[in-house]
Specification:
The structure holds two protein chains of two kinds. Chain A is α/β, with parallel strands linked by helices. Chain A has 14 helices and eight strands. The relative contact order of chain A is 0.15. Classes of the chains: A alpha/beta, B mainly alpha. The interface between A and B is large, with 65 and 65 residues.
Amino acid sequence: MKFSYFPGCSLKGMGGAYETSLIAVMEALSVQLEELDDWNCCGATAYMSVDESKAFTLAARNLAIAEKKTDDLLAPCAACFLVLQKTQKYIKDYPEVGRVVRESLRAGGYDYAGSTRIRHPLDVIVNDIGLDTIKKTVKHPLKGLKIAPYYGCQVVRPYATFDHQDYPVTMDNLLKALGADVVHYPLKTKCCGGSLTGTLPEVGARLSNILIREAKRQGADLITTLCPLCFFNLDSYQDKMEGPEKITMPITYFTQLMGLAFGMPSSKLGLKRHIIPILPILKERQVAIA
Amino acid sequence: MSKIRRTIKYESERDGTFAEEIMASPGCEDLLGCFQCGTCSGVCPLSIYMDHTPRQIIYLTRQGFKDEVLRSNTIWLCASCYACYVDCPKTVHITDVMYALKQRAIREGLYPSRFPIPVLAREFYKMVRGKGRLTETWLVVRLLLKTNIFKGFGMWRLGLGLLRTGRFSLAVESMKHPEELRRILDASPAQHGKKEVA
């Protein structure tokens, strides 16, 4: 299996642990990732707030580069995944958008037919590679580790078709295949606040803190995410928690947990790049760390 | 007890073509189908912080209360979680409507000058134009400079945390050839024939 890989700006920045753990895990599953040549920012939510046709053009340049390579495009960041899908869909559904985008791309020497498929690694791992292969690759099951599976908004909504939009279970099944206990987590697709933690922290941090409290209430040891912004928000603003008792909750990427279960060395998984340390709970639950 | 505020709306405040202009944006064409059920406001995790709920924004937009809509904090608080988008029984793509309203508010300069959310959007836009990629740390620095620099001092703990975990870097991420991207973006017409914003 081979993919064009679209890391996006966050995985090259604050979300570095997501990138290193994803690459390590995909290698173990014999999936080849080739980074998209001179990719550009997808535009996230901010660019679309300023100018729509330029936002579609910006994202479409990446789709055009991937189309030349003919491999599917793997986008691990939730915002990139959504923006690329949205661009793909709107180019197709709105001929005028398609015309403007194609014309603009020609200025860079691209001709985009519109055939690039955009995939999320969670979908690929569970639905293409399959849980049987995952189970066979597990060396140290994550026994006794109670995990709240947090999907956030933009992987499951509104365009992804691989799971339910409000109560998805793909990651739940993956975590179970790794041997972990998955707690019932009703807020699994409730928004973490997105970029509001940076712009209006009094609002944004409250949203992510609600998610942490609920995970604690459900008895989770940690929350696992599949988005660099969710990770950042949940991990970084726990000191802003309101209320009488101080609670902390370690946050992980799902790929880090896969790596742990596959017996990969912790240096490949970025386990020390968390503000809320993750190692104490792993030791307490006697999870083997290679 | 607070004083009673004016709640009456006047015909003279309406802009007759506003709804149509918003509906011309892709995804916004079902705006008139809204039957005001309030599902969007119910599922919105941010509606309690908004000055108008999403349902009210849809109605005000339809009725052409342009100024009130574009000056509301609602459009900026929308975090694009798409909960309303997928649950709307009338397939109004509310998230897309919010984007169309944000674009319009930026173009008309109708937001408080130091209000951080549109400032972030514009700084993001400029940074991508320059380097083709985003460097998160510099985006935060530029945001603080343009809004409230003193707020930055309150972030020392987070800064230290990022430093300690090896995630604080001032190295600038860039494409190899950002000029190629600029050529493409310049070839893309500025929206609705208006002049470039950033």
